[in-house]
Amino acid sequence: MDLNFTEEQKAFRAEVRSFLDEKLPKRLSDKVRLGQRLTKQDYEEWHAILNEKGWLAGNWAKEYGGAGWNAVERHIFEEETTAASAPRIVPFGLAMLGPVLQKFGSEEQQQYWLPRILNGDDWWCQGYSEPGAGSDLASVKTTAERDGDHYVVNGQKTWTTLGQHANMIFCLVRTSKEGKPQEGISFLLIDMDDPGITVRPIVLIDGEPEVNEVFFDNVRVPATNLVGEENKGWTYAKYLLTHERTNIAGVGFANAGLSNLKRIARLEQSGGRPLIEDPLFAAQIAEVEIALMAMATTNLRVVSAAAAGQAPGAESSMLKVKGTVIRQEINALTKVAVGPYAMPFVSEALEAGSNEGPVGPDYAMAATPHYLNNRKLSIYGGSNEVQKTIIAKAILEL
Amino acid sequence: MNFQLTEERQMLQDGLRRYLADAVTPEALKADEAEGVAPELWSGLSEMGVAGALFTEEQGGFGGHGFDLMTVFEELGRAGAPAPLVELLLAGGLIAETGSETQLALVEQAVEGAVQLAFAHGEPASRFDIDRIETRAERSGEGWTLSGRKSVVVNGAQADHIVVSARTSGAPGEREGISLFVLPKGTEGVEIRDYPLSQGGHAAEIVFDGATLPEDALLGAEGQAHEAIETAQARATAALCADALGAMETARALTGDYLKTRKQFGQPIGKFQALQHRAADMLIEIEQARSAVINLCGHLEADRDTREIHVSATKHLVGKVARLVAEEAIQMHGGIGMTEEYDLGRFARRLSMLDQRFGDATYHLGRFVRLRAA
């Protein structure tokens, strides 16, 4: 047992920190810190800065243009970037599709699509969930029928995050109705500009059109856009979900959220004293901090094992459940901490440089939208109920 | 012991439930979001005489007791109705308790639905403390000069008259020295910023920059308003908790329907025992909340200490349950529960904001401890 990072890892952390000092635009970190909206251009700007350094795709092998970091290095990068209020890296191309193409894609696909992801030529979105296939993902109904050199796609995807910015979507489609539901699914890359595709925004309870429905009406997709083999898409989807879950604990986000919560509790006054001196409120902050300290170590245990070559299994389900619950508790405490100023809902104030400023202190304006929005954490990427079922089956063998 | 509603209250409940089931339309919600008023709904409620249930006969109403409040506000919450009746209860209650003959006429008009009211009390630094008031009123000639800032004044820009608290003596944190004033809309030296609220309705930041008020703007005895404010806030807390109770019932009903109809893995998700138990927990906690609301409503007219112990006990418990119900309802729905177009969202927001008014669950836990120790 040794809880210390190695000298190389410490040096790497210092390197990341000085890079962020130098290269992270204050305009972007201010937005992230205040919880203001990030535009498509904001994300692209940050991606380009990271790509120039070769740090955009931490989890990709060097031969594909990635940083080739192991799990510990990726973890350090995540910790430093969240602490510095850097925009998150949009995961769909980089964290999700990239690894699938590297493992299962053809050489042509790799050579064509991977550089485009790094250079920001394509903005990918994820076409997994459907109205009737949420937790039960294997019951996807969107069909792809072979017609010469093309597939003809019909159906509907939903909860497509940031689909409004995307020009490409990777989809799970049904190519066969034979056998078990999992056996007839294929993994298809589709151009969002193709005729027959309609995108409809879904406004969430925080007022943001973050997700979308995507409709497919006889969309003709070149057969060369099939990844791997027909009817083997479920395997690739599972592989992708494992990758989606490596950073699912969100330790960096939780730490940043906890610092923000403490800062607010020091500034807010209750009974003539800082709120953080209220023993009951302070106890609630302490409880979540203690849970986070332990969870961070659970995360490092999984990360170390992964760095040593073990594929993350059902442990990632534990991290997902615990990590999301902790982040949601921090969001809930933050909403309470800002008091009555959590009630105003001034959407324009979340736009940087808007004439409409926040009603109360600037730290208050995003508390309620974030609290509401992060209810999604325990729903997406396999709901926490699904994760617990995985734990029950895979670890407890029930 | 009798936990049945009286015949009159039963009729009020039935009538209100029927009316609101049709009257809370998408148009009404949109109007409320844009302007902070849903005019048709407001006049409909006025025609039904709902405001009268908030005041006693001497005050010009036909109710005014705890269970009248519970009856009305539970239905408003059940329907998620955008109507500033808590503000009427607060401001109207203060005028009814302490007002002069002329001022009492405002309550009559408010009961008829002819005027809207608001109570401007909270300030940027006061959080939930009733006595932490910095806004000052000073005598000047024949009247008063008012200076200070009030924050998140619900219905502030929509109200025809505002009741404002201000110090005429003493320092922030002292019970003594707080006075009340009534201002008509459009008083000079009053700056208002209107904005929408997460739970529906609007509020305002109100800045008094040397606003001049006539002598007779003073409401009640100078410097003695603390007790009246605490009483009015106790009643408003009961109303808000009853409103939350109604909203929880709707959240539970929507969740129950969804569990029965949504199919995943080849069966309705309500067949999964994990979700059955959580839905059962929701029900158990909502019944706890109902009893807590009954406790408070039944003690609104008790002596001050007894009443306030129930205020804090109820606001604590209902605050906790409201969070549980809002979060569990969304979770059991999954993605659809996160969307604006599904009905659950506005109820979840209404429940989420309960903690932000009149003290959150933790604040009232601490207050309960102190009141019990006293």
From TrEMBL, chain A:
<dbReference type="InterPro" id="IPR006091">
    <property type="entry name" value="Acyl-CoA_Oxase/DH_mid-dom"/>
</dbReference>
<dbReference type="InterPro" id="IPR009075">
    <property type="entry name" value="AcylCo_DH/oxidase_C"/>
</dbReference>
<dbReference type="InterPro" id="IPR052161">
    <property type="entry name" value="Mycobact_Acyl-CoA_DH"/>
</dbReference>
<dbReference type="Pfam" id="PF02771">
    <property type="entry name" value="Acyl-CoA_dh_N"/>
</dbReference>
<dbReference type="InterPro" id="IPR046373">
    <property type="entry name" value="Acyl-CoA_Oxase/DH_mid-dom_sf"/>
</dbReference>
<dbReference type="InterPro" id="IPR037069">
    <property type="entry name" value="AcylCoA_DH/ox_N_sf"/>
</dbReference>
<dbReference type="GO" id="GO:0005886">
    <property type="term" value="C:plasma membrane"/>
</dbReference>
<dbReference type="InterPro" id="IPR009100">
    <property type="entry name" value="AcylCoA_DH/oxidase_NM_dom_sf"/>
</dbReference>
<dbReference type="Pfam" id="PF00441">
    <property type="entry name" value="Acyl-CoA_dh_1"/>
</dbReference>
<dbReference type="InterPro" id="IPR013786">
    <property type="entry name" value="AcylCoA_DH/ox_N"/>
</dbReference>
<protein>
    <submittedName>
        <fullName>FadE30</fullName>
    </submittedName>
</protein>
<dbReference type="InterPro" id="IPR036250">
    <property type="entry name" value="AcylCo_DH-like_C"/>
</dbReference>
<dbReference type="GO" id="GO:0016627">
    <property type="term" value="F:oxidoreductase activity, acting on the CH-CH group of donors"/>
</dbReference>
<dbReference type="GO" id="GO:0050660">
    <property type="term" value="F:flavin adenine dinucleotide binding"/>
</dbReference>
<keyword id="KW-0560">Oxidoreductase</keyword>
<feature type="domain" description="Acyl-CoA oxidase/dehydrogenase middle">
    <location>
        <begin position="125"/>
        <end position="219"/>
    </location>
</feature>
<dbReference type="Pfam" id="PF02770">
    <property type="entry name" value="Acyl-CoA_dh_M"/>
</dbReference>
<feature type="domain" description="Acyl-CoA dehydrogenase/oxidase N-terminal">
    <location>
        <begin position="6"/>
        <end position="121"/>
    </location>
</feature>
<keyword id="KW-0285">Flavoprotein</keyword>
<feature type="domain" description="Acyl-CoA dehydrogenase/oxidase C-terminal">
    <location>
        <begin position="231"/>
        <end position="396"/>
    </location>
</feature>
<comment type="similarity">
    <text>Belongs to the acyl-CoA dehydrogenase family.</text>
</comment>
<keyword id="KW-0274">FAD</keyword>
From TrEMBL, chain B:
<comment type="similarity">
    <text>Belongs to the acyl-CoA dehydrogenase family.</text>
</comment>
<dbReference type="InterPro" id="IPR009075">
    <property type="entry name" value="AcylCo_DH/oxidase_C"/>
</dbReference>
<dbReference type="InterPro" id="IPR036250">
    <property type="entry name" value="AcylCo_DH-like_C"/>
</dbReference>
<feature type="domain" description="Acyl-CoA dehydrogenase/oxidase N-terminal">
    <location>
        <begin position="6"/>
        <end position="103"/>
    </location>
</feature>
<feature type="domain" description="Acyl-CoA dehydrogenase/oxidase C-terminal">
    <location>
        <begin position="238"/>
        <end position="352"/>
    </location>
</feature>
<dbReference type="InterPro" id="IPR009100">
    <property type="entry name" value="AcylCoA_DH/oxidase_NM_dom_sf"/>
</dbReference>
<dbReference type="InterPro" id="IPR046373">
    <property type="entry name" value="Acyl-CoA_Oxase/DH_mid-dom_sf"/>
</dbReference>
<dbReference type="Pfam" id="PF02770">
    <property type="entry name" value="Acyl-CoA_dh_M"/>
</dbReference>
<dbReference type="GO" id="GO:0050660">
    <property type="term" value="F:flavin adenine dinucleotide binding"/>
</dbReference>
<keyword id="KW-0274">FAD</keyword>
<dbReference type="InterPro" id="IPR013786">
    <property type="entry name" value="AcylCoA_DH/ox_N"/>
</dbReference>
<dbReference type="InterPro" id="IPR037069">
    <property type="entry name" value="AcylCoA_DH/ox_N_sf"/>
</dbReference>
<dbReference type="Pfam" id="PF02771">
    <property type="entry name" value="Acyl-CoA_dh_N"/>
</dbReference>
<keyword id="KW-0560">Oxidoreductase</keyword>
<dbReference type="Pfam" id="PF00441">
    <property type="entry name" value="Acyl-CoA_dh_1"/>
</dbReference>
<dbReference type="InterPro" id="IPR006091">
    <property type="entry name" value="Acyl-CoA_Oxase/DH_mid-dom"/>
</dbReference>
<feature type="domain" description="Acyl-CoA oxidase/dehydrogenase middle">
    <location>
        <begin position="118"/>
        <end position="209"/>
    </location>
</feature>
<keyword id="KW-0285">Flavoprotein</keyword>
<protein>
    <submittedName>
        <fullName>Acyl-CoA dehydrogenase family protein</fullName>
    </submittedName>
</protein>
<dbReference type="GO" id="GO:0003995">
    <property type="term" value="F:acyl-CoA dehydrogenase activity"/>
</dbReference>
